[in-house]
TrEMBL record:
InterPro entries: 6-PGluconate_DH-like_C_sf, NAD(P)-bd_dom_sf, P5C_Rdtase_cat_N, P5CR-like_CS, P5CR_dimer, Pyrroline-COOH_reductase. It catalyses: L-proline + NADP(+) = (S)-1-pyrroline-5-carboxylate + NADPH + 2 H(+); L-proline + NAD(+) = (S)-1-pyrroline-5-carboxylate + NADH + 2 H(+). Keywords: Amino-acid biosynthesis, Cytoplasm, NADP, Oxidoreductase, Proline biosynthesis. It comes from Scopus umbretta. This is Pyrroline-5-carboxylate reductase. Pathway: Amino-acid biosynthesis; L-proline biosynthesis; L-proline from L-glutamate 5-semialdehyde: step 1/1.
Amino acid sequence: GKVPANSILASAPSDKNLDAWRELGCRTTHCNLEVLQESTLVFLATKPHILPGVLQEIRPAVGPHHVVVSLAAGVTLQTLQRLLPAGTKVLRLMPNLPCVVQAGAMVFARGSSAGDGEATLLKSLLSSCGLCEEVPESYINIHTGLSGSGVAYVYLFAEALAEGAVKMGMPGGLASRIAAQTLLGAAKMMLETGEHPAKLRGDVCTPGGTTIHALHQLEKGALRATVMNAVEAATNRACDMAKD
């Protein structure tokens, strides 16, 4: 809601990808250069292997007044700056799927020519989509392993929670809703209290109670080590993609 829809111009090769933008009231085009001519803040949301061709196409139209934000996974600031005119204000952004429901987790890093003004503008615009933090570029691949891919780990855990309840006799739909609300509430407590998750976990446990018995089973299954390994694997894969 921070930018009027008619102030946004979206470009894509096919109408299929532009229909959603039109439904929101945005203007659309099939010409990338038109976006550069009419906009100062430009988001590049392409597949990584397509981005170099797009950058080559728009390079002649990029000027000192433009701010270019790349969402392409694995494409470094160094590569972006090399393929755009010298001095272009470039930022690299990595969102995650829950941005579509304004509950995302995003990190961004700025290139050598982007200043505080550009960073503040990007953070202000994206704050309505969830948490947005500026980080060193080296953290972006870690963010991919933690949050970009991490959404899928949470869905797997939510599915397992619900299936455990189904096993014990609860209807599946109800179990799924309660599992989702449980995850939402736990996350909200972490954010609003600022407490370490170990402290909050300890608050739930009572001596000899249900929770400590359940946690013992999770520890026997090496849940923590397995999740840490998953974050490491996804981060390493993101690094490999950047090399490719």
